[in-house]
Amino acid sequence: MEAAPSLYVNGGATIAGAATVPGDKSLSHRVLMFAAIADGRTEVRGLSTCRDVGRTLSALEAMGVAVQTVARSPEVDAEDKPSPAAAPLLRIEGRGPRGLAGPAVAVDCGDSGTTLRLLAGLLAGQDRTFVLFGSEALRARPMQRIVTPLRAMGADVAATDGRAPVVGAGGGLRGADILLEKASAQVGSAVLLGALNADGQSSVRYPSAVRDHTERMLADMDAPLRWSPRSSVLHGPVAGLAPPGDGHYHVPSDPSGAAFLWVAAAISPGGEVHTPGICLNPGRDGILEILRAMGAVVAIDDWRVAHGEPVADVTVRHAPLRATRVAGTLIPRAIDELPLLAVLGAFATGRTVLADAAELRAKESDRIEAIVAGLGRMGAHIEARRDGFVVDGPTPLIGAKLAGHGDHRIVMSLAVASLAAAGETVISDGNRPADSFPGFVETLRGLGAEIRRA
Ligand code: S3P
Q: What is the C-alpha separation between 161 and 155, in angstroms, rounded?
């Protein structure tokens, strides 16, 4: 058997230039699911080609949804070279809000928690039985959080000791008022997807604001929905749904992917990175607030609105960094970027603290332990806490041999730290970035980094 590749990173290069980041992963999952239950055809441009979104696409195809690859994006054709952001133009034939009814289906969600959790809500309202399963890593993650609210809506769904596989028989849902304990967009989205086919009014209340992509996309599709940052109300069952983006949806670039480039520039003396067309949903912009609080120069230009989502061009420039404390309502707004806070903390003057973020232990790995172990091996003064970490900086980081913990965001965060470390760093699980950021290595190389997969 071939050994899994590692990432080899040489520290010291200045990170500078412009980069187009792949389409947003959260929006890509959603636009596929919503296009599948719209009335009519949707053409989707800029969909993320990452592995996790591929799971959602295959699942929908297995349920009979017709998806046709029409062409490469014109931006890519014109360049005449493979671009990291290369994304096909897809044509999806919507089957209507109840159009996923059919024979029993078993869906392999791989490592993708978003695929499993959102599909659980979607399928709870479709007339078909289903089994949602995944990798060993996915089986380790909590699933009762979707089962409990869906059961409160009358769904016949169950998890196995609170974990995948999640099995169910769809249909017969009734509206319910759901008060979520955790600020989770995935859980809220699962409820709203079920609510589309439930009888009567459903509501979701979040303990603090989360990414509201589902709400924005449903509003764009003329669904009977009202929402504010912490609560959403939907009247079901919906009779019909307009195709997202009026049938032409362009997925903006992923802020959670761009964040690796922003932090790479922020810790690189002389560094500066420009990333156009980033989705700046208010539930996703926490990392920019953190970068600013730590002293990095952040410029946001050319704000526009695309299919109800705020989009802008973002430039981040290096400056001396100072420590910060991140906690409370900022946590869900930066949830996927918090390992990068540890990296920033290692280069900042003073004590950087993360608190209220125990949820990080339930991601693709225990991200608190994983990032603390990796940066610790590089010489950072960092300690894990129950709900976060403490980093005393700055400390010069030294290249080391590191474990990627099978987690794309840990592999990429450690790669970013390695760019500003002395000497060479080797990180295992070098294929993992493709879970969410296809072309990560090539994109960094385009910005001057010395990084390769081997
Ligand atoms: C996501 C929501 C977040 C995030 C995940 C994607 C989404 O998860 O960490 O990467 O697309 O809704 P939680 O809702 O579990 O916090």
A: 17
Q: Please determine, for residue 83, whether its predicted confidence score (pLDDT) is greater than 80.
A: no
Tokens found for residue 91: 């044509």
265, 278 Cβ separation under 8 angstroms? no
What confidence tens digit (pLDDT) does each residue in 95-148 have?
999 999 999 999 999 999 999 999 999 999 999 999 999 999 999 999 999 999
| Among 449, 374, 380, 445, CA closest to 406 | 374
DSSP state string for 241-286 = -PPGGGGEEEPPB-HHHHHHHHHHHHTSTT-EEEEEEEE--TTTTH
**Structure confidence by residue, pLDDT tens digits, 270-307:** 999 999 999 999 999 999 999 999 999 999 999 999 99
Say what the pTM is.
Answer: 0.97
* CB of 342 closer than 8 Å to CB of 309: no
Residue 339's nearest CA partner among 379, 291, 388 is 388
Answer positive or negative: Cα dihedral of 361, 363, 369, 372. Answer: negative
Domains in the chain: ranges and CATH: 7-22+252-453 (3.65.10.10), 25-247 (3.65.10.10)
- Ligand 1 atom closest to the Cα of residue 363 is 9
Locus of tokens 């993992």: 432
Q: Is the CB of 184 under 6 A from ligand 1?
A: yes
Distance of CA 364 from the midpoint of ligand 1 (Å): 11
Ligand 1 pocket, residue 335 CB under 6 Å: yes
Torsion of CA 442, 444, 446, 452, to 10 degrees: -50
What is residue 4's predicted lDDT score, i.e. its pLDDT?
Answer: 87
Specify whether the CB–CB gap between 45 and 73 falls below 8 A.
yes
> Would you say the CB of residue 193 lies under 6 angstroms from ligand 1?
no
